[in-house]
Amino acid sequence: MNPAPSLFQTARALIVRDVQLLWRRRGDALQPALFALLVVVLFALGLGTAPQALSKVAPAVLWVAVLLAGLLSLDTLFRGDAEDGSLEQWILAPVPLAWLVLVRVLTHWATTALPLVLAAPLLGEMLHLPRSDLPMLLATLALGTPLLSLLGAVVAALTVGMRRSGILVALLALPLYVPVLVFGAGAVAANAQGLDASGALLWLAAGLLLSLLLAPLAAAAAIRIALT
Questions:
Q1: How far apart are CA 196 and CA 158, in angstroms?
Q2: How far apart are CA 32 and CA 38, in angstroms?
Q3: Residue 228, helix vs strand vs coil
Q4: What is the pLDDT of residues 74-121, one digit of tens each?
Q5: How many beta carbons lie within 10 A of that of residue 185, not counting itself?
Q6: Which of 42, 51, 75, 110 is the most interior residue, by most CB within 10 Å?
Q7: Helix, strand or coil, per DSSP, at residue 152
Q8: pLDDT tens by residue, 205-216
């Protein structure tokens, strides 16, 4: 009788599978980054070329671009596994379902949101973001984007059994995303004005820790309900 796989062996197998599937559809993987770039370019064209006008709205524009790009790929978080029967195997696996959900969410964040965080300096230059505000922007994105992925996972799990739920996923996720957007963009704006932005960062960090504990459990429960 083969021993049950450990949590880390299961996580490694799931990550390898996800990366292989992502490599096969490389075009789809680039869509969130291209969409965020398109949003930034459209804002830059709409607001004109005045650096002072662009720099004032740069933090909010970058955060909106990241948020909308995350919504673009949110519906596919569990849908492919539901269609090919993998989610049923997740439920029957000898490891907690919440662990598999957490691994999937972190992989999804690393392949969709992390490239946007790394590209934030370039996008900020396009919007004439002051370089002194760049560290605060990166800090808020580093805390806020995983939080967005975890909150979105709960919504994606709730709607995994529905067909054509893309718009519904966005409508359900947006109210959860708004506080993250407010604290993230607000922290950068406060820092630009010389104010203390540590409070917003602490709220983002607290939300991230709380979501790491509760979001996988909630998403796992939603998957069980959707498939039974």
A1: 38
A2: 10
A3: coil
A4: 877 887 777 777 888 888 878 888 999 999 999 989 888 888 888 888
A5: 23
A6: 75
A7: helix
A8: 999 999 999 999
The tokens of 176 are what?
A: 């959860």
Q: Which residues fall within 8 angstroms of residue 112, CB to CB, at 6 or more apart?
A: 29, 32, 69, 70, 73, 149
The CB-based long-range contact list for 209-218 (8 Å cut-off, 24+ gap) reads: 211/146, 211/147, 211/150, 211/151, 212/102, 212/150, 215/105, 215/150, 215/151, 215/153, 215/154, 216/98, 216/99, 216/101, 216/102, 216/105, 216/150, 216/153, 217/98, 218/154, 218/157
How many residues are there in the chain?
228
- The pair of structure tokens assigned to 190 is 């406060």
Which residue blocks in the chain are alpha helix, DSSP H? 7-24, 26-29, 31-47, 51-74, 76-84, 86-92, 97-126, 134-158, 166-192, 198-226
Query: Against a cut of 0.85, is the pTM above it?
Result: yes
More confident residue, 217 or 126: 217
The amino acid present at 140, given as its one-letter code, is T
Which is nearest to 107 in space by CA: 196, 16, 225, 190?
Answer: 16
Of 117, 114, 96, the closest CA to residue 106 belongs to 114
Q: How many CB atoms lie within 10 A of CB 193?
A: 8
